[in-house]
Amino acid sequence: MSEIALTKNQQLVMNTLSASKSPLSAYSILDRLRGDGFRAPLQVYRALDKLVNIGLAHRLESLNAFVACSHPACDKHRNTVFMICNECENVMEASDGDLSSNLKDVADRSDFSLSSATIELRGVCGRCA
Amino acid sequence: MSEIALTKNQQLVMNTLSASKSPLSAYSILDRLRGDGFRAPLQVYRALDKLVNIGLAHRLESLNAFVACSHPACDKHRNTVFMICNECENVMEASDGDLSSNLKDVADRSDFSLSSATIELRGVCGRCA
DNA sequence: ACCCATTGCGTTATGGCATAACATGAGTCA
DNA sequence: TGACTCATGTTATGCCATAACGCAATGGGT
Asked: Can you give the pTM of this predicted structure?
């Protein structure tokens, strides 16, 4: 497992994501980093691309937003499930072996060669219920 | 089970979706319907809202696009899984009882009250493999 | 028949999300 | 040195989605 050195921009974006409890859009990250010299969306998107690629952040498709990975060590063998609270917008991350193998079964049954999955749940979290 | 009457616009959008094998964005639907008097995105989005609500169409979050429902009778008790081929962009739809109960288990374990799920798989379909 | 609530329609304008294309600079390695 | 890679900065552009307005048609309920 190699440590990966983040550039200054990547570090700034990562810090911004980590400091937020709820997902942030690229543009809201941009706004928070204007004081640090950020001026264009691309500066954010490029950093996000890298962070997502190395697994330090995740993109939430249903929100067009991003979160810091809260999984201590993201298990590459399992699909990640995101639970997005409709009330507080906070996001919980989970993974489950049975779910992942089930997903693979579903794909296999359709002769579909699975490479990645987007699993985003909506509902209400325990704190808000 | 009540039959639902579609308006002219809704019918046009539905026909367009049904005629396409792969997902369509709202704007590409708009382009295909300009000859039928469509002029603005909202005309498409309003029809799509309705079609999605009554289950005749689905929104694919990871594509920002829409597909006609290919499920003969969409089972409300099961979550729908979309398999999107990276090669041909075609989409297959499936559902599975085990997967749905697994998903609920994962949510329960996090004290999350599940109301809806987005499950979109990427990979390669049988025809393209 | 009347009112009223609901639903859909059409238009203009606006806002949010994301990337293309081009040029620059820093670091590595043969 | 030269070629290559990766990150950066900037401008411009394009796609996705909705706000806000007003109007038209429908369908109960009294």
From this structure: 0.94
